[in-house]
Design a protein that fits this description.
- The protein is an alpha+beta fold and 151 residues long.
- It is 28% helix and 25% strand.
- The protein is built from four helices and five strands, in the order ααβββαββα.
Length: 151
């Protein structure tokens, strides 16, 4: 959900008491239920930006203490980081599932035992963390220019 809107962490013992809320929400929106990934809370969530097929930059998003949401609206922070090369390679591998040429992609996931686990592949996401890497807008503009020249 955008900016963790209507995002809840529900423990199994709380599920019965949350059934009415889930039903109410399902009447007005689609719902996604997924397992809680503790690594988001303990290690953070990676966001790797690719412009076209080329890696640009990455941030590690971490929730504030005591929360599980990494969005800044809830006190989370996003720090510019340099991921290990193998993590970049694994995130880049996700892009192979997309058959169309891309202007950009944001590959979000967590690292568990050295392996990248995809949480979200953002292909229409407006947040590419340009503020964290001041040269990233230049790389993005270069990719856009390349695409315009190839048409």
């Amino acid at each position: 959900s955008a900016t963790a809107h209507n995002t809840y962490r529900i423990r199994e013992q709380e599920l019965a008491s949350f059934t009415d809320r889930v039903h109410e929400m399902s009447l007005s929106m689609d719902l996604l239920v997924q397992p809680f990934i503790k690594e988001v809370q303990s290690q953070g969530e990676w966001s790797l930006m690719f412009f076209g097929d080329a890696y640009s930059h990455a941030v590690l998003k971490k929730p504030r203490d005591g929360d599980f949401r990494s969005q800044q609206d809830f006190g989370g922070r996003a720090e510019l980081v340099t991921p290990p090369p193998d993590l970049i390679r694994q995130a880049h591998g996700v892009l192979n599932a997309v058959s169309e040429p891309l202007l950009y992609a944001r590959v979000d996931g967590v690292e568990i035992n050295g392996r990248f686990h995809l949480i979200e592949l953002e292909l229409i996401e407006p947040t590419l963390f340009f503020a964290q890497d001041h040269m990233s807008p230049v790389r993005f503009a270069n990719r856009l220019s390349e695409l315009m020249q190839s048409d």
